[in-house]
Specification:
five-stranded parallel beta sheet, Exostosin, Rossmann fold, golgi apparatus, alpha/beta, 40% helix, single chain, 20 helices, glycosyltransferase activity, 534 residues, globular
Length: 534
């Protein structure tokens, strides 16, 4: 082969020499001679490129791939060549030092020709062009999504329940902090299936301001924020009730109280009768309530009166999913495992609901053991004040004294305390629980029979202390007995759980809106039963 290359080079030099002598015989002037020289150079370059394009023997091939035998190498060089690109799978991972593997896995062959450089036709029978590999399989999530869309609503719920029962085990996640959860594997899988499956139908019936008019400010703002974000959600909301897995009754108990309660009457009959008539109208106009007797319907109420407004309608009280801030088991209205405990959040700036959240002091800058300031209503707070109002390590006040607040505000007290006392008021719920989380202060919850928010998935012992009402006299002893290491773990966990208790004007994954919706979804799944299991 090397002899052939030398013969080709000699032929090229001979042609150039003959061209030059031909120009001299014609007695060409200098300009024509220069032009002829330029043409000769171009011709030589083209000839050189033509020679390079022909198949060549790679003498060092064995150094790149010693596994190929000489006979195989000879066959490879003799066979006709075609341009071919081999597709790499989408999930192939190639290291930075694997250039040889890349070269071998994506061969690029020359044009058809024999070893002598003569073009010839390819024998279709002897040369089979390999078909490209099939495209990579579609995303399992997408395939599962499409399968779920083929199911009826009840079939989809039963399928999701089985999937959650067989959730793949995970111990950590980039978006979730495992120590906060009872079972992070179950929560993760349930949340994924909620995003793929859940569709909610919102009834359009009812006039403002009781219906469709969210109340976004103050301590009852949670019901308004959920209504606002649910109504504006395009992912979960469906306009076709036949495709819905849940049905939302979009009324506000706070607006109901403002519109119908007669001051100083001490009677909730106008409110309860109004809701009774509303549900009866929904049941008469649509088939969906009667289909399940209301068990796939839900409402959201943060006002203290939320559970009591249901008593005039038996199915609303007993079957519907009640999402309540006043999640008190002792009243016989809230049912754990079916109903949902709603976090009570105080919103002072509706345009910026996240204002003043975070920024708690370091542990070394929290000299106060425990802090509480507030009105003395309910059965728990007077006992708390009685035992601990004069303690030097704990700051327990009726209301924060004016002179004290000048030096250190309410928020600064929470940011400077290791524990924040969250006693019940008239009802078991308290906005201080979420406030403590916002300011990275470990909440101490004193409210018997209170079902804590998201307790079906969150492990509250990881970031809070729950003390029975009877143990208020031993409050300081209990707090001081907590090892420093345990407290530091809880304080870190409070920071990590914060994201699950924040309203966003545009909801984000795992925020308060999605956590509330997930609890509704999760509890609904727990209530349905597979008919084949009986």
């Amino acid at each position: 082969m090397q002899k052939k290359h030398r013969s080709r080079n000699s032929q090229s030099l001979f042609l150039m020499k003959e061209l030059f002598l031909w120009c001299v015989r014609l007695r060409m002037n200098s300009r024509k001679l220069i032009f002829a020289g330029a043409m000769t150079t171009v011709a030589a370059a083209l000839l050189h490129l033509w020679f390079l394009s022909h198949p060549l023997t790679v003498s060092s091939y064995n150094s790149l791939n010693g596994s190929m035998r000489p006979s195989q190498l000879s066959e490879t060089l003799q066979e006709p060549r075609i341009y071919r690109i081999q597709h790499l799978p989408a999930n192939s991972i190639i290291s930075q030092n694997s250039s040889i593997e890349v070269m071998q896995s994506v061969p690029v062959e020359g044009r058809a020709g024999d070893s002598n450089g003569k073009r010839w036709k390819t024998d279709d029978k002897s040369k089979v062009i390999p078909t490209p590999p099939p495209p990579p399989p579609r995303s399992p999530t997408l395939s599962l999504q499409r399968y779920i869309w083929t199911l009826t609503p009840i079939e989809a719920l039963l399928f999701a329940k089985k999937e959650i029962d067989h959730a793949p085990i995970i111990t950590e996640d980039a978006e979730l902090y495992a120590p906060l959860f009872r079972n992070i594997s179950v929560f993760k899988r349930s949340y994924e299936l909620m995003e793929m499956t859940l569709r909610v139908y919102i009834y359009s019936n009812g006039k403002r301001p009781i219906f469709h008019h969210p109340y976004l400010r103050g301590i009852y703002a949670s019901e308004g924020w959920f209504m606002k974000l649910m109504r504006g959600n395009k992912h979960f909301v469906t306009e076709d009730p036949e495709k819905a897995h849940l049905f939302y009754l979009p009324y506000s108990v706070r607006q109901l109280q403002l519109a119908l309660y007669v001051p100083n009457s001490h009677s909730m009959k106008p409110l309860t009768n109004f809701l009774r008539d509303y549900v009866n109208m929904i049941a008469a106009k649509y088939p969906f309530w009667n289909r399940t007797h209301g068990s796939d319907h839900f409402f959201v109420a943060c006002h203290d009166w939320g559970p009591y407004t249901t008593v005039a309608h038996t199915e609303l009280k007993e079957n519907a999913i009640k999402v309540l801030c006043n999640a008190d088991l002792s009243e016989g209205i809230f049912v754990a495992g079916k109903d949902v405990s709603l976090p009570e959040t105080t919103i002072k700036f509706p345009k910026k609901p996240q204002r003043h959240i975070g920024g708690g002091n370091r542990v070394s800058q929290r000299p106060i053991l425990a802090f509480f300031a507030g009105y003395m209503h309910g059965r728990v707070r007077p006992i708390l004040l009685k035992y601990w109002k004069d303690d030097e390590d704990m700051k327990i006040y009726r209301r924060l004294p004016h002179l004290v607040s000048k030096e250190m505000s309410y928020i600064q007290h929470m940011k400077s305390s290791r524990y924040c006392i969250c006693p019940m008021g008239y009802e078991v719920n308290s906005p201080r629980i979420v406030e403590a989380i916002y300011y990275e202060c470990v909440p101490v919850i004193i409210a018997d029979n209170f079902v804590l928010p998201f307790s079906e998935v969150l492990d509250w012992s990881a970031f809070s202390v729950v003390i029975p009402e009877k143990d208020i006299p031993k409050l300081k002893e209990i707090l001081l007995a907590i090892p420093l290491r345990k407290y530091l773990e809880m304080q870190v966990n409070v920071k990590m759980v914060q994201k699950h208790f924040v309203w966003h004007p545009v909801p984000i994954k795992y925020d308060l809106f999605h956590m509330v919706l997930h609890s509704i979804w999760f509890n609904r799944l727990n209530q349905i039963q597979d008919p084949q299991s009986h």
